[in-house]
Each structure stands twice: as C-alpha cells, then as structure tokens.
C-alpha cells in the first residue's frame, strides 16, 4: 500500500515501514504541545492540531490497509479442490489536511 504525504511531496511504501506512529510536536524551546505528527521511519507524513485527529487518520490508514488485501477461494478443477487466492487492490492513501479531518462528538 502506498501513502502520499500531506504536502504531496513524498510517497511511502507501507510494507517497507517498520512502524507508523503519532508523535507529539512541541513549540520551539518549550514543552508546550504544538500539534501531533504521523511519522514512519523518521519521516513526517502529516501534521494535525489534535491527538484525536491524528488517531482518526491512523485509523483510516489501518482500515485502508485492512481492506486492501483479502483471501478468496477458487476451485481448481485439475486438483478437484478449493484453493486460497490472495486478492490485492492497489490502494493509495492520501494524508488529509488538518481541516479535512472531522471529529464528531
């Protein structure tokens, strides 16, 4: 699965990533939270104003990945048996801008 960064300048191959996580960003020289970034392999994919928005985006990445591949079964007439077949969609997830992430109470 591919993930395109929020600024549209980078494409990440999710299968090549060790992890994807949410990290707190701080204002320069302070311990005051400035927002939350979603990163993989030390590369920032997007920035969000609240942790709740960042978690929602991470959930969307998870859902896209989960639906990208699935197993179906085909019947092999020569073997006279059902065989599993992995079906893969070519999913690309575009990291949304902060204002595009809607949180409903």
In short:
This protein has one helix and eight strands.
Describe this entry's structure for a reader.
The structure is a single chain. The protein has 105 residues and is α+β, with helices and mostly antiparallel strands. It has one domain (2-96). It is 17% helix and 44% strand. The chain is built from 1 helix and 8 strands; from the N terminus they run βββββαβββ. It has one helix at residues 51-68; strands at 2-4, 11-13, 20-26, 33-40, 43-48, 69-76, 81-88, 92-94. Strands 2-1-8 form a 3-stranded mixed sheet, with no helix packed on it. The longest helix has 18 residues, at 51-68. The chain is elongated. The mean pLDDT is 89.
- The averaged pLDDT comes out at 89
Helix content: 10-25%
Ends distance: 31 Å
Strand order of the largest sheet: 2-1-8
Radius of gyration: 18 Å
**Secondary-structure element pattern, one letter each:** EEEEEHEEE
Low-confidence stretches: none
Biggest pleated-sheet summary: 3 strands, mixed
DSSP strand content: 35-45%
Work out the helix count: 1
Secondary structure class reads alpha+beta
Fill in the keyword field for this structure.
single chain; 105 residues; alpha+beta; 8 strands; elongated
SSE diagram, text form:
Layout: E1 2-4, E2 11-13, E3 20-26, E4 33-40, E5 43-48, H1 51-68, E6 69-76, E7 81-88, E8 92-94
Parallel strand pairs: 1-8
Antiparallel strand pairs: 1-2, 3-4, 4-5, 6-7
């Amino acid at each position: 699965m591919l993930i395109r960064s929020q600024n549209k300048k980078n494409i990440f191959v999710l299968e090549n990533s060790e992890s994807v996580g949410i990290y707190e960003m701080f204002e320069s020289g302070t311990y005051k939270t400035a927002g939350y970034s979603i990163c993989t392999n030390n590369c920032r994919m997007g920035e969000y104003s609240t942790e709740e928005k960042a978690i929602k985006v991470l959930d969307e990445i998870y859902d896209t990945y989960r639906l990208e591949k699935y197993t179906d079964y085909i019947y092999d007439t020569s073997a006279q048996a059902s065989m599993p077949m992995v079906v893969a969609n070519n999913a690309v997830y575009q990291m949304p801008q902060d204002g595009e992430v809607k949180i409903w109470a």
